[in-house]
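Section 3.1: Structural characterization of target chains.
Under the original work plan, the team committed to producing a structural model for every single-chain target entering the pipeline before any wet-lab resources were allocated. The record below documents one such target. The sequence was received from the expression subgroup and is listed exactly as submitted; it comprises 63 residues.
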Amino acid sequence: MKEAEILADRIAILHEGTIVVNGTFDELKALFPAPKVEYVEKQPSLEEIFLAIVSGKGEKHHD
């Protein structure tokens, strides 16, 4: 699929042997709604915690 996006002037979408739509990649892309931006909270990995601590950027707790 990536090759078609890059190399093809026009693309046809086939479904059950019938062309259901064709056009340039930009024309086909315009058929979809605009992308939605969502916020995803990312928890730090153990590696990120380790790197923050050893670089002095993390909080240091002494028990």
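The radius of gyration is 24 Å.
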